Amino acid sequence: MRGVLAVVSDITVQARAMEKIMHARSxxxxxxxxxxxxxxxxxxxxxxxxxxxxxxxxxxxxxxxEVPAPASAPPSKETKAQGQRILVVDDNxxxxxxxxxxxxxxxxxxxxxxxxxxxxxxxxPFAPTLVLVDIGLPMMDGYEVARRLxxxxxxxxxxxxxxxxxxxxxxxxxxxxxxxxxxxxVRPELLERVIHxxxx
Length: 200
Hints:
With about 200 residues, the chain is an alpha/beta fold. The protein folds into two domains: about 1-65; about 75-200, Rossmann fold. The chain is built from eight helices and five strands. The protein has helices at about 1-45, 50-65, 75-80, 95-105, 115-125, 140-150, 165-175, 190-200, and strands at about 85-90, 110-115, 130-135, 160, 180-185. The chain has a five-stranded parallel sheet with strand order 2-1-3-4-5, sandwiched between helices. Helix 1 (about 1-45) crosses helix 2 and helix 5 (about 115-125) packs parallel to helix 6. The longest helix is centred in the first third of the chain and has 46 residues, at about 1-45.
């Protein structure tokens, strides 16, 4: 009987020892897996450092205390010059479209008219802050367009854009109320300067 008990006891001891060994092996495997996962993550982060910075930056942004915004300064003339409402009056569709695209690239809102009557109809609802007028228009020339725009209460500066560049042409443009007289083809930098100078 004692021999049987001894054998049972020995088997029990061996079983417990084996259980401890298996438990230790399992913990070691888990530790190795955790280490491998950590190294993989670190390796990825080192190859892609911005992925580490972005979440941290986002967290800092949300955690940062709110700071009252400084009182906004009145818009400068440079800011105003970038958001004009410009009416382009030119009977050449290609020229008008190209000029309109250039002005939109500068940040302006553009309305195009291809003759005098169309310009007179478009101006009041559009309320332009600047009007670019071709002098050689059909039906009524640019000088007549300028006069009638003033009669309709349009006070925006008028800029003549024309192929006529003689001294008499410039004088006549001034007499008709044009603030500037530009000769085609107009250089973009010159046009931008004129728009800046005439900004309200």
